[in-house]
Amino acid sequence: VLRRAVERLGEILLAGWPQVDRTDIDSFAECIVRLAVSLVALPDSPTGLSAKVISSLFTPYVERILAKTVG
């Protein structure tokens, strides 16, 4: 199930960001899927993990992989 979810999310991300390296897409997709599964299993986060916190963690990575395509 996880493998298929990662593959499918990778396909979706690659469709939106065709210029991004597949390795970067796959890494990002796996992190997102694993985070989603963790949040489903344990929805109450002791650290207050919110969409804002998640965004602040992933934004630098997304900006970096997108920046690699400019040039």
Task: Please report which band the strand proportion falls in: under 5%, 5-15%, 15-25%, 25-35%, 35-45% or over 45%.
Answer: under 5%
The major pleated sheet works out as: none
The helix tally amounts to 3
Structural class: mainly alpha
Describe the structure.
By secondary structure, the protein is mainly alpha-helical. It is built from 3 helices and no strands. It is flat, with a radius of gyration of 13 Å.
SSE layout:
Elements lengths: L1 H15 L5 H20 L9 H17 L4
Helix pairs in contact: 1-2
Précis, in short:
This protein has helices spanning 2-16, 22-41, 51-67.
Describe the structure using short key phrases:
71 residues, mainly alpha, 73% helix, flat
